[in-house]
Design goal:
By secondary structure, the chain is mainly beta. The chain has 1 helix and 10 strands, in the order ββββββαββββ. A hairpin with a 5-residue loop joins strand 4 and strand 5.
Length: 142
């Protein structure tokens, strides 16, 4: 059996050409599909019909230190997107585990929510919330 390695420094997260270099400790990235891939219904005679949902949207939560420089870049994109009203904040997304075979990519992704402002005597994190349309996810392991 081969020993596997997981290293957050080997995770690539690129949104709108901005590469995130610093992640929060513990859980720092969560990708959640908005819908199940399939649903089913059953008729009176117990015949099951399977329905394909075809909704490939996903919610992405990225947690980075409050001191990370990427916060300023993400803020600029998000504020410009809100002010322009023309979708200027919609950009490609790439998430890849460089030590494994996991990859998540979308041609269209945007920031749906900036972090809450928190201040503390200890270092804190910012949680950026993104949405991607037509996210392609490959869970390939390592």
């Amino acid at each position: 059996m081969t020993t596997k390695l997981q290293n957050p420094k080997k995770l690539t997260f690129i949104f709108a050409g901005i590469s995130v270099e610093t992640f929060a400790s513990d859980e720092f990235l969560k990708i959640t599909k908005k819908s199940d891939a399939f649903a089913s219904s059953v008729g009176a005679n117990a015949e099951v019909t399977r329905e394909q949902i075809n909704d490939e949207r996903a919610d992405i939560e990225l947690t980075i230190p409050r001191t990370a420089g990427e916060n300023g870049a993400f803020t600029a994109i998000h504020e410009a997107d809100k002010l322009s009203g023309n979708g200027s904040g919609v950009a490609p997304l790439l998430i890849k585990d460089e030590l494994g075979n996991d990859i998540h990519t979308a041609k269209e992704c945007w920031i749906v929510r900036a972090p809450d402002a928190t201040y503390s005597t200890k270092s804190t994190n910012n949680v950026w919330k993104f949405e991607a349309s037509n996210l392609i996810s490959i869970h390939g392991g390592s």
